[in-house]
Amino acid sequence: MSETGTSVVKRGMAEQLKGGVIMDVVTPSQARIAEDAGAVAVMALERVPADIRRDGGVSRMSDPDMIDSIKAEVTIPVMAKARIGPFVEAQVLQAIGVDYIDESEVLTPADYAHHIDKAPFTVPFVCGATNLGEALRRISEGAAMIRSKGEAGTGDVSQATTHIRTILGQIKRLTTMDSSELFEAAKEMRAPIQLVRETAELGRLPVVLFTAGGVATPADAAMMMQLGADGVFIGSGIFKSGDPAARARACVEATAYYEDAERIAKVSRGLGEAMVGIAVDSLGAGDLLANRGW
Amino acid sequence: MTVGVLALQGDVREHVHALEAVGATARPVKRLADLSGLDGIVLPGGESTTMGRLLGIFDLLDPLRALLGDGLPAYGTCAGMILLAAEVVDGRPGQELLGGLDITVRRNAFGSQVESFESDLDVEGVGDVHGVFIRAPWVERAGPSVQVLARVGEHPVAVRQGHLMATSFHPELTGDTRMHELFVRRLVATEGGRP
């Protein structure tokens, strides 16, 4: 008997990515640079978040031809983004054989009440979260991997720091609670009690937790790992910088050797300019992508 | 008995737990110094291209090849199987391998993630095993001294050659520690560790 699309297979796929860097790419040649640098996966999309932010308008799932061209270029997993809510975009991405779907706040939401019901899909999903309740709600909908949101397309790592600290801090507090306190915590977080209990017992999420949103330097990536992330998504930070290939290699090395300051120092030299970026505190509340998701 | 787990990337924690469950002392291996005094080593699941590149950058490739050549017992799962193979088909051009097993593996042989699957297997010397296959490779060619322990269809998915063994599937994800037990009791204990 052989079965595809099981929870073990979907969550297990994310376990294989741990300790790695997943990079946003918009062309096959960028995908090649990412794979050569040692990325564990690429995220195929039409515009990196910094450009989505600059251009405005409605941002949607990428053209399947564009995703196919990236799949043809590399041997590592290819992920693609769907908007929050539109399950048909996810059906399309599954039909063309992407390895993981990111139901992402970076694209313009298409449903302001519902996320995609992810459990029935064969393809696994990763979803963003700013706190533990949001992460557990996404897992209850079938997400097989969580990434803290940060603030995509800014090059400002402050929100990534806040979100990963928040999620891990809330988990730490759960581990100290008795069973009646866990009920109260589940209510407050609007999360299913079974997942709250499981998280408290494990002392971590029941799925892999990456971080994302504003990571731009090897030191940023290593800090996310030291804070307790299982791995790092880098969006605009690589291909909006002066020397993407060198920066990509450096970020991979810093993520693998995140506790070794000498190595991080070594790989941080001579990388050219980092992405210019936007300080998050200069953005209005309406410009914050992390607020999308419910 | 101290068994290393290559900890550059991948599902290291799961292998550490499985090794400890069968009574071995597990040691994550990231640096050259971590290799000394090991009785065996596990190469975990992950991305073989990433691990190969990091092995090269951090000067572990040649020392590890030398240890395997000297008889250090090793067990590779999925990406680890690819690293132990003599040859890879559908890999990245110029992909770095450790080698040791006289096999050719096909990378992502079963297809992309939507084709990843769970299936019951009959593993020689172990019995019924529930295999978890994630973008898994299969063995395309096995040399005469390679013993095939399990197959999916006609393709070998578990092999052993002396002090080296490899599986396309991930026993570390299932809580079934019999494959790790086989490795520790039969390969590490009898093939002998490093002097």
Explain how this protein is built.
- The complex is a heterodimer of chains A (294) and B (195).
- Chain A is of the alpha/beta class and 294 residues long.
- Chain A has an eight-stranded parallel β-barrel with strand order 2-3-4-5-6-7-8-9, surrounded by eight helices.
- Chain A has 13 helices and nine strands.
- In chain A, 55% of the residues are buried.
- With 195 residues, chain B is an alpha/beta fold.
- The two termini of chain B are 13 Å apart.
- The A-B interface holds A 1-6, 8-9, 12-13, 15-20, 35-41, 71, 74-77, 94, 97-100, 122-124, 252-253, 256-257 and B 7-14, 30, 45-47, 49-50, 53-54, 57-58, 78-79, 90-92, 107-108, 111-120, 132-135, 170, 173-174.
- β1 (2-4) of chain A pairs antiparallel with β7 of chain B.
Largest sheet of chain B: 7 strands, mixed
Q: Compute the number of strand runs of chain B.
A: 12
In helices, the fraction of residues of chain B equals 25-40%
> Would you identify the regions of chain B where 5 or more consecutive residues have pLDDT less than 50?
none
Computed CA radius of gyration of chain A, to the nearest angstrom: 18 Å
* Total beta strand runs of chain A: 9
Strand content of chain A: 5-15%
Distance between the termini of chain A: 38 Å
**Coarse shape of chain A:** globular
Query: How would you sum up the major sheet of chain A?
Result: 8 strands, parallel, barrel
Multimeric organization = heterodimer
What is the second-level CATH architecture of chain B? Answer: 3-Layer(aba) Sandwich
- What order do the helices and strands of chain B follow? EHEEHHEHEEEEEEEEH
Structural class of chain A: alpha/beta
Q: Which range does the strand content of chain B fall in? A: 25-35%
Q: How many domains comprise the coordinates of chain B?
A: 1
List the helices and strands and how they pair.
The complex is a heterodimer of chains A (294) and B (195).
Chain A: E1 2-4, H1 7-15, E2 21-25, H2 28-37, E3 41-44, H3 49-55, H4 64-73, E4 78-82, H5 87-95, E5 100-103, E6 125-129, H6 132-140, E7 145-148, H7 158-174, H8 179-189, H9 193-202, E8 208-211, H10 218-227, E9 231-234, H11 236-239, H12 244-256, H13 261-268
Parallel strand pairs in A: 2-3, 2-9, 3-4, 4-5, 5-6, 6-7, 7-8, 8-9
Helix pairs in contact in A: 2-4, 2-12, 7-9, 8-9, 10-12, 12-13
Chain B: E1 2-6, H1 12-21, E2 25-29, E3 40-43, H2 48-57, H3 61-69, E4 74-77, H4 79-84, E5 85-89, E6 101-106, E7 117-123, E8 127-133, E9 138-142, E10 147-152, E11 155-161, E12 164-167, H5 178-191
Parallel strand pairs in B: 1-2, 1-3, 3-4, 4-12, 5-6
Antiparallel strand pairs in B: 6-9, 7-8, 10-11, 11-12
